[in-house]
Design brief:
Helices cover 62% and strands 6% of the residues. 51% of the residues are buried. With 976 residues, it is of the alpha/beta class. The longest helix is centred in the first third of the chain and has 27 residues.
């Protein structure tokens, strides 16, 4: 084997870091610096012989010692002794030496092999694999090459190896941009350009990364800074590539738009090919004229700007089935992929185009960090991503043309197929198709394919009566036929007689939505009583779906019985299995189920009881999660009793998973109980309180705020002071996190007043605490100290250890801001001690954050960084992206204070990436302010001004006058 010394152990050597040697797993002593210099000189010659004169020159240059040759012989002898049984790899030849350890025994060999494989992978079109290989090659380095090795030869080789490493880094970053990871690359490129300011390739990559991240002004500022620096230092202009990139950015060159994948095939860009079409039904029947018409439209999409076909018809007429069937048949005309979305146009909450575009972009391979906020920006990126490609988008169940327009590909060769219950006459350029019910012959064929030829042939007239009773609506026919197929003891006549009852099909004979309702009545009427009750009650909750345990709570049954019932509804096509253990209604079926509940669920109190049980389930479970995350917290002691139990978790990870998985359903349930009557208002408010981790993470802030606002309105209407006080406290916390401090303070002020009136320790303590935080941000430090002390007194009187720790944390911040570090640090230490003593989970990271902030104010910067470093993985593991980003921001401030500007800029960039799209704009403004200061100190005034200009816009829009004045001062002092 190459490199085998013949003694059963393989010698290995490293020069990409300290010069080291191993036999197998044992590290060998390589001796003094000069001895290591000799070893390095021989290793880097690849087995070739080096003369004594060459080695003397390598080790000592023009000033060798008197006994240089003797020293060489001594070093060689010692190396042989270190090699032991492998001493013969170091050979003496022609008055010189050669080291022949074999191919692959040097770390450079591994790095070169990986780099070569990466180059081949990239050439073959696999950018993802190429990046992985380059990353693996870079991991071979272990610090500075030839570390602490003296001599002119080592100096030359060190520079060569470092240049090679930088070249690999540039290649990896170039691949990052190709793969759509431009937002993540900004942080690293900022640090690298600070370390290597004259390296133009890094500047070029930084400009492109910033531009693709929507930061055009900063990208152009990088060019301005680079041009000034090159002129000052070298008296030259930027290279042609850099100048050309500047011009392309100024022109808004579409080719600079981010591509979702770095994989190439030949010379054309390939990418993730989505195949999202739902499965076509195997028994698709008829519709020949419509299939031919739509297929022709899609087949001729190439060469046209965009082909749009809109299929309209009443619910249940088969629009989706037809569209999916045609889309599958047309796949060969759209080799670059097919996208699908249910736009939920008939439901109470339609799919937002912005959210749909986000899902489409992710499906096309665009990284989350590269997806901009805002409908227009996402729509533009969607069109850019599809430019030059042939993709079909099936937009199912649209409400109107306004919902569809931003989702249209808009590029030549692409097409969109839209289904809706309304005719989209205002969708410009669309080919409109009106889908009517099936013909009698088509309806009978569909019925026969589901039920079976033998059973239908024996009772053809009864079968025709059956499809006629279904109004020839495909969905109604499918439901009826499926029920019959599942009941072998039934004849077609039995089903026909059931449908012959006019009370069951009166609505079916009407036009519009009522025809759909009549169709559903066929399936509902055949349910057993327990199935029908489950169908009705499960239609009551507003959530996007429902878990099996939550459904059991609604039905007041055990989980096994509930699952059996729900699966029978799935079999009847009245319910969908969204995922294992989760179920959902089609939107129209949900509306129908609710109408059945209003009509059939008697007495009406049964409906209220079902929703109350669901609320109890969510409240009980969420309260358990809250306590698991916060041992010593008293909040749950002030929550009213629940009659229905929830789930119990032993592991905080599983508990957090449940909370974030159920977030949409939980918040919908809380909002659904935002009504002054019914006796559930206080529990709904408490549900939001114990689920507040959802808003602190930033992921569900908008839904949480909507629910809180609705509950506050209901509390005010009901005159319930406790509910109103807690709802205002919740809303104050939400507004505070989004940087709307005036609104937050007003809500908290009223919450404190109401809390005192009704003697509620929850709102008194937490609302005062929020007022303290707001006053800190507004630099009203006397007020802040008063509020924090009020909160501290409330929490202590209540025995609320977690609340006490939070108040101490905020009080420490007041002392920090008022230049009292000697008292700020002990306060933070007491906060952290409480969190450690109570064995909290991610709240411990809050304590570490507070302690790090206090240490920063005391000038104990390294200790502060240690606290932040410990907090970061805790926030990350518990999906607290907002806190993770804010901790990175605090680290950037520390680096700014210690004049480590490159590290500060890198951490600020990471902070921007983490809070992007989930936190208030004011946080982004604060981070941009610090980033600009770091960049200005790094000699990048142009980019610094761009950051400050962006921050100024944020602060002015939010009405934050103090911060705006700070930024204006920086902009007025900055040099161009």
């Amino acid at each position: 084997m190459a490199g085998d010394t013949g003694h059963g152990q393989r010698l290995r050597f490293a020069v990409l870091g300290p010069v080291r040697a191993w036999r197998g797993g044992e590290e060998l002593r390589t001796g003094s610096p000069q001895q290591r210099a000799l070893l390095a000189a021989l290793l880097l010659r690849g087995g070739r012989t080096a003369t004594a004169a060459e080695l003397v020159d390598a080790l000592w240059g023009d000033d060798p010692p008197h006994a240089a040759l003797a020293a060489l012989r001594t070093y060689a002898s010692r190396l042989r002794k270190a090699f032991g049984p492998d001493a013969d790899v170091l050979a003496s030849e022609a008055g010189g030496y050669a080291l022949r350890a074999g191919v692959g025994c040097l770390d450079i060999d591994s790095a070169e092999r990986l780099a070569a494989e990466a180059e081949k992978a990239r050439a073959a079109g696999s950018g993802t694999r190429a990046r992985a290989l380059i990353t693996e090659a870079l991991a071979v380095w272990d610090g500075e090459p030839l570390a602490h090795v003296p001599g002119p030869y080592a100096d030359t080789q060190r520079a060569r190896l470092e240049e090679w490493r930088l070249g690999l880094v540039e290649t990896r970053l170039d691949l990052d941009l190709e793969l759509g990871h431009h937002a993540e690359a900004v942080s690293e490129l900022t640090a690298l350009t600070a370390a290597h300011p004259l390296r133009e390739r890094l500047r070029e990559l930084l400009m492109l990364a910033l531009y693709r991240s929507g930061r055009q002004a900063e990208a152009l500022a990088v060019y301005t800074d680079t041009r000034r620096l090159l002129d000052d230092e070298l008296g030259v202009e930027p290279c042609a590539e850099l100048s050309e990139l500047q011009q392309r950015i100024l022109r808004g060159d579409a080719d600079l738009a981010p591509h979702p994948s770095g994989d190439r095939a030949g010379t054309g860009l390939a990418f993730v090919r989505p195949a999202q079409l739902p499965a076509t039904v195997p028994d698709f029947t008829g519709r020949d004229a419509f299939v031919q018409e739509l297929s022709h439209q899609l087949a001729t999409a190439e060469g046209r700007v965009m082909a749009v076909s809109a299929v309209a018809g009443i619910g249940g007429v088969g629009k989706t089935t037809l569209a999916v069937h045609v889309a599958h048949a047309a796949r060969e005309h759209f080799p670059d992929g097919q996208l699908y979305v249910d736009l939920q146009g008939t439901g109470p909450v339609v799919a937002e185009p912005e959210a749909v575009l986000g899902a489409f972009l992710r499906a096309l391979g665009v990284a989350d960090s590269a997806i901009p906020e805002g409908l227009q920006e996402r729509s533009a990126l969607f069109r850019s991503t599809l430019d030059g490609r042939r993709v079909l988008a099936l937009l199912d169940n649209a409400r109107d043309a306004a919902q569809v327009r931003p989702l249209l590909p808009g590029t030549e060769g692409c097409a969109a197929l839209v289904t809706s219950r309304t005719r989209m006459v205002d969708l410009a350029g669309a080919h409109l198709v009106d889908l009517d019910v099936m013909s009698p012959e088509e309806a009978l064929v569909l019925f026969t394919r589901i039920v079976g030829t033998e059973r239908v042939a024996a009772e053809r007239d009864a079968a025709m009566d059956t499809v006629a009773a279904c109004g020839f609506l495909p969905l109604a026919i499918r439901i009826a036929a499926s029920r019959l197929a599942a009941r072998r003891t039934w004849t077609v006549s039995v089903l026909s007689r059931k449908l012959g009852d006019e009370r069951r099909r009166l609505d079916e004979l009407r036009a519009g939505d009522l025809a759909v309702k009549a169709t559903f009545e066929l399936g509902y009427g055949q349910l057993e009583p327990a199935q029908a009750r489950a169908f009705r009650l499960l239609g009551l909750p507003d959530g996007p779906d429902i878990s099996l345990p939550a459904a059991a709570a609604v039905l007041d049954l055990d989980v096994d019985t509930t699952e059996e019932l729900l699966e029978t509804l799935v079999d009847a096509s009245l319910l969908e299995s969204a995922a294992p253990g989760r179920y959902r209604f089609h939107d129209l079926l949900r509306l129908y189920a609710r109408s059945c509940a209003e009509r059939d669920e008697q007495p009406p109190a049964e409906r209220e009881a079902a929703m109350s049980r669901l609320l109890d389930f969510y409240l009980s479970t969420a309260a358990g999660v809250y306590v698991l995350e916060r041992p010593g917290e008293q909040l749950v002691q002030h929550i009213g009793p629940t009659e229905h139990p929830g789930l119990v978790f032993q592991d905080s990870g599983a508990a957090a998973d449940w909370l974030f998985t159920e977030a949409g359903c939980l918040l919908a349930c809380a909002r659904q109980h935002a009504r002054p009557s019914g006796g559930t208002l206080q529990r709904a408010v408490d549900l939001l309180f114990v689920a507040k981790d959802l808003t602190e993470s930033g992921a569900y802030s908008r839904l949480y705020a909507h629910a809180a606002t609705a509950l506050l309105g209901a509390a005010q209407a009901s005159g319930d002071s406790r509910a109103e006080a807690r709802a205002r406290t919740i809303l104050a916390q939400v507004r505070n996190f989004s940087g709307r401090f005036a609104e937050a303070d007003e809500q908290a002020m009223h919450a404190v007043r109401l809390g005192k009136e009704c003697q509620d320790p929850v709102s008194c303590g937490y609302a005062a605490n929020v007022r303290g935080i707001i006053a800190i941000y507004q630099q009203r430090y006397e007020d802040a100290e008063e509020y924090c002390n009020q909160a501290l007194a409330c929490f202590r009187a209540d025995g609320n250890l977690n609340g006490e720790a939070s108040a101490l944390s905020n009080l420490s911040r007041v002392h920090t801001e008022t230049r009292r570090p000697r008292s700020a640090v002990p306060l933070a230490e007491r906060c952290l001690a409480i969190y450690r003593d109570t064995n909290v989970s991610w709240r411990l990271a809050n304590g570490l954050y507070a302690y790090g902030t206090a240490l920063t104010s005391a000038g104990r910067y390294q200790e502060a960084l240690a606290q932040f470093d410990e907090a970061l993985p805790v926030f990350r593991d518990h999906r607290q992206r907002m806190w993770e980003g804010w901790t990175l921001y605090r680290m950037a401030e520390v680096h700014l204070a210690t004049h480590e500007y490159a590290r500060g800029a890198a951490h600020a960039e990471q902070a921007l990436a983490r809070i992007r799209g989930i936190s208030g704009e004011w946080r982004r403004g604060s981070i941009l302010l610090t980033l600009g200061r770091c960049l200005d100190a790094l000699g990048q005034p142009g980019r610094a001004r761009a950051c400050w200009a962006d921050a100024l816009t944020v602060f002015e829009q939010l009405g934050h006058e103090r911060e705006a004045r700070t930024v204006q001062g920086l902009l007025s002092l900055a040099t161009v």
